[in-house]
Amino acid sequence: MSKPLYQPQSGVLTVQYAPDEHTVLIENPPRFTWIPAQLDGDSYVLQYSTSPDFDMELTVTVQPVPYNLYTPVRALAPGEYYWRYALLDSRPPSGDTAGAVGQFDDQSVSVGSAGRLDHKSATGDATGAAGELDSALVSGAAAGSASAPDNALLADTSTCLGRTEWSVTRRFTVPPGLPETPLAGRDSRYAHASKAHPRLWLQASELPEFRRKVRDNPASVGWDAFLDRSVIPWTERALIAEPLPYPNNKRVAKLWRQMYMDCQEALYAIRHLSIAGVVLEDRALIENAKTWLMHVTAWDPQGTTSRDYNDEAAFRIAGALAWGYDWLYHALTETERELVRERLLQRTEQVAFHVMERSKIHHVPFDSHAVRSLSSVLVPCCIAMLGEEDKANSWLNYTLEYYSCLYTPWGGADGGWAEGPMYWTTGMAFVTEALNLLRKYTDIDFYRRPFFQKTGDFPLYCFSPDTIRASFGDQSSLGDPVSLKTGFNIRQFAGITGNGLYQWYFEQTKATDTDSEMKFYNYGWWDFRFDEMMYLHDYPTVEAQQPTEVDPVKWFRDIGWVAFHADMHDPERHIMLLTKSSPYGSISHSHGDQNGFLLHAFGEPLAIESGYYIAFGSTMHMNWRKQTRATNSLLIDGAGQYAGTNKVLNMAASGTVEAVENHDNYSYSRCNATAAYKENVPYLERCVRELYFFGKSYIVVVDHVDLSQPGRIDWLFHTLYEMKIDGQSFKVQGRKADMDGRFVYSASGDLDISQHNEFTDVEPSEIEGFERQWHLTASARPARSHRIVTLLVPIRKDEPKYVSYFMDDQDHGVHLYFTENGVTNKVEVPKAY
């Protein structure tokens, strides 16, 4: 009798049991995920079938599956399927539980050898099979396709490795026409990978042709700028000293940042000198690169640049060793190679251990740094060591299976990124570099996945290139123009998809962000000339397309963001209104800003993302920017949404976009943030905000708040300028635009309006020298139900306009009419009783 299987209930922070009958698949094959049956040492047998009884001839069986996730190696025929899993008694003895090699998973394909159980031992070559003992059990790829003798071998898979009872059976449907994005099995995954070095970016076989391009037309691949500004300076710089510890080993933000920037410079020196020396076959550059590499190799892997001391520093040093080892491979002596590889292995193992064993992102995928370290560390480091260190094969397999199945935890089919645009920038910068390395080295192309096909839409609509302070979440570039690196990222997706809108975005950022190269959020993270050189070599030129016909309202359902636009193509006339009510709540780099909104119009930030970026964990960050009081949202009896450090409560403090509509003369959204306030305001029954964007000209905000006891509502608004307050109106006067704000209806009577320019509970030293911003509070009298209607009219300088209004409340609703230039629109608000 089989042992019982523990099937824990999934939670808000864990992976989910998927797919099931509620899952809408966006790619084929489906990605199978489940909650681990035990904490450690788990591996599984997985079955999926067109038969609810898992008839042998209609069932695919895969074992061992080393983690609680699996991507089939072939797409499935459209139709209805069932799946289940069981826990195997133990992991295979190899230590690299790789599973499912050599299988044919497409039930629409006839497989004459179906039903054969193959065991393949390690070959130790550069195919990536080193150290593996993989097996695959496949049955009946199509009904009747397998012979009876072969099928007879599949009567009971429990005889292979021993298993528990089967899990609950789940059903899912594969619709026709989905993009096909299978993942090659571990036996064939590295079939195209060469043993030769270099492997990172340029392959050894590409070097002769690239040398020809550099000789004949260096500007065509950006080589001249790369050599002049990203290589030669490092021949003249003194070696960078190993970073010193923090005073008393207590982290100081300024020193933490300097430490990782020193390590970034070490990466620049090693990578750029190595590439230039090898491409030019220049002995002096190669020797200079070796000097830098051996100097950094000598740094203590357990010291100040270890993962546990400063992970940002550790990521950079691991990457530096990987690029140096790979590109200088033939210039190093055997002793030097062994030393560099030993240190590279140590540093990579620190990161892999944290990702796989401590953070366990295959259990709980919402660790921003751990997920990013797959791209910045595990991909380049494991490629450099593949076939030379057994562990590199295991870590790279884990990474590819995560990319294929769980990436990204921050968004979905719409391409959104819940942490916000600056962390999209960081995440995409590293993941695109990693995916480019993988595609060139292994021929595995993750860009075909739906997320990567659409994610360029996220900055296009939610971080438009002419806007400032007009997007949500943590932003190291807050207050500056949209980062040029964001533009470089979106150009990458132009090259992948051919989307001319993305190329337009890149060209806009290149024209506007002209002086940020040396700022810490650029220089300390990437080198634009190196980016340019790689892109020009690997991707085609895409013609820019003006965004004259973009969606007037864009709903990112995956993250709960809604963007309204008018005249995006013309910065002087562009109006952007952004709102969110996100299922991600305030987790990670998100804030307590559900139902909040931002407004940028005519080249001017009007309703802003307030505050400054000091450092993650600073008092500005924790006490102001993450809190609801810093957003254009509501407080209830002085309390905002939960935005503390408890990740469970962060995720629970979520919002929902209930509706998004586009009509001939207006666009509309309705968002519900009730859950976001529940931890701090348990007597809240309903908090809904409606936004109407009329005539691509003005906005009406309708707030509905219902409580089980009387409470006061504070309506919040933030801007760069001191406002003029007059009765129930307030006016923003900017440099390029103004905005008239007017409370046209409040169910509890006139609002008490005030403003201040303080950052409450922020350490004064953090904001010394920064310009003050202005924060408006409109307070309603205590009541159990509140209805507040606000009119916002952005006005271009020297182009006077106004929107008139009147109210009719003769029945059970309040009917508000707004008129501009002879066009009248109606908003109906249910009365509060």
How is this structure best described in words?
It is found in: Cell envelope. With 833 residues, the protein is α+β, with helices and mostly antiparallel strands. Among the domains are: 32-174, Immunoglobulin-like (Sandwich); 553-807, Beta-galactosidase, Chain A, domain 5 (Distorted Sandwich), CATH 2.70.98.70. It has 20 helices and 28 strands. Strands 15-16-17-18-25-22-21-20 form an eight-stranded antiparallel β-sheet. Helix 6 (283-297) packs antiparallel against helix 7, helix 7 (311-327) packs parallel to helix 9 and helix 8 (334-359) packs antiparallel against helix 9 (368-385). The longest helix is centred in the first third of the chain and has 28 residues, at 253-280.
